[in-house]
């Protein structure tokens, strides 16, 4: 994927990266759903497998000279690795202690929190037009999940922590690539094994070690092969996430995440005849309107920036 992207124009590379993320993300949702329903494989252990396979995939890539590893001090990326583990743990706990509607509503708050973090700590500015695009997107998510939103103290705490840690993780993915002068593969090559090690310490707290459904349970060969295949797809998901954030921004990646959510709902309705209420249809239209507005304003700002650079002596 990396070599193919390099041969494209800058805009072409961004579109190809977004398309790769879209296809792999949708694919992994269905594979993971199959694994949970048919095999009962533990959730966090599956995430651990994903990151181990991601590191193995990157190791093979560097052996094939697709990228050259860059020596990085562990202390510079340890918080990035820890934030990933927190993001996985708190997201799972939020889903476990909240309704689907509350969970989705909390996830929608990631985008404004990212903007707040980047504005406050990284002195990045966002135009009023860009900020206003969050209004229809948030409204769309509320419409989609209105009848399933239920708050409780523990669920709200986990959801809030999940939003904060997820936002920090996504901001740091982009910031570390620029700060350390590395590309997505070079950074992920170091972060994947670190996060795997941290997750290995956390997993036994949340999931059983032995017996049916345990980490070292009596898994069948088809189950293990499906889990490994899920890890291969996760390698593409993780790599494309890092690439998108590194070449665009965490906010753009989040906007794309809302788009994927709409596509999943529409796909479920068209392909599997899942019920789609009037509220959900209006929610999808609001969200898509916000995403299209964001894309329009962002492209206009980029063109304006290029014009200013061209006019400089």
Explain how this protein is built:
The protein has 313 residues and is mainly alpha-helical. The chain has helices spanning 2-6, 10-38, 43-63, 74-97, 100-108, 110-121, 128-132, 134-145, 153-179, 184-206, 221-247, 250-272, 278-311. The longest helix is centred in the last third of the chain and has 34 residues, at 278-311. The model has no long low-confidence stretch (mean pLDDT 84).
Write the layout of secondary structure elements.
Layout: H1 2-6, H2 10-38, H3 43-63, H4 74-97, H5 100-108, H6 110-121, H7 128-132, H8 134-145, H9 153-179, H10 184-206, H11 221-247, H12 250-272, H13 278-311
Helix pairs in contact: 2-11, 3-10, 3-11, 4-9, 4-10, 5-8, 5-9, 6-9, 6-12, 8-13, 9-11, 10-11, 11-12, 12-13
Mean pLDDT: 84
Task: Kindly provide the radius of gyration, computed on alpha-carbon positions and rounded to a whole number of angstroms.
Answer: 20 Å
Distance between the termini: 38 Å
Q: Shape, please? A: globular
State which percent range the strand residues make up: under 5%
Give the helix/strand class.
Answer: mainly alpha
Element order, helices and strands?
HHHHHHHHHHHHH
Q: Give a count of the beta strands, DSSP E runs of length 2 or more.
A: 0
- Could you name the ranges where pLDDT drops below 50 across 5 or more consecutive residues? none
Fraction of residues in helix: over 70%
Q: Major beta sheet, specifics?
A: none
Query: Number of helix segments?
Result: 13
């Amino acid at each position: 994927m990396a070599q193919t992207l390099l041969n494209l124009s800058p805009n072409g590379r961004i579109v190809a990266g977004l398309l790769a993320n879209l296809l792999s993300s949708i694919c992994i949702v269905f594979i993971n759903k199959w694994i949970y329903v048919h095999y009962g494989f533990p959730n966090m252990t599956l995430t651990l497998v994903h990151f181990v396979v991601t590191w193995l995939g990157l190791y093979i890539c560097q052996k094939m000279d697709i990228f050259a590893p860059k020596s990085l001090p562990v202390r510079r990326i340890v918080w990035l690795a820890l934030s990933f583990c927190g993001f996985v743990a708190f997201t799972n706990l939020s889903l476990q202690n909240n309704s689907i509607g509350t969970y989705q509503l909390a996830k929608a708050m990631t985008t404004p929190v990212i903007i707040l973090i980047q504005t406050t700590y990284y002195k990045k500015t966002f135009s009023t037009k860009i900020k206003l695009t969050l209004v229809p997107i948030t409204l769309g998510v509320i419409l989609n999940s209105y009848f399933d939103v239920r708050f409780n103290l523990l669920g709200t705490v986990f959801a809030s922590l999940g939003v904060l840690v997820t936002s920090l993780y996504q901001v740091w993915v982009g910031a570390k690539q620029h700060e350390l002068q590395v590309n997505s593969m070079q950074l992920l090559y170091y972060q994947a094994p670190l996060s795997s090690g941290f997750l290995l310490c956390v997993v036994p707290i949340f999931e059983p070690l032995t017996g049916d459904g345990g980490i070292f349970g009596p898994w069948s060969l088809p189950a293990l092969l499906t889990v490994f295949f899920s890890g291969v797809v996760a390698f593409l998901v993780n790599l494309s996430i890092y690439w998108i954030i590194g070449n665009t921004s965490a906010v753009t990646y989040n906007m794309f995440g809302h788009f994927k959510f709409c596509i999943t709902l529409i796909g479920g309705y068209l392909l599997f005849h899942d019920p789609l209420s009037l509220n959900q249809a209006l929610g999808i239209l609001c969200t898509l309107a916000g995403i299209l507005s964001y894309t329009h304003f962002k492209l206009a700002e980029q063109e304006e920036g290029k014009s200013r650079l061209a006019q400089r002596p």
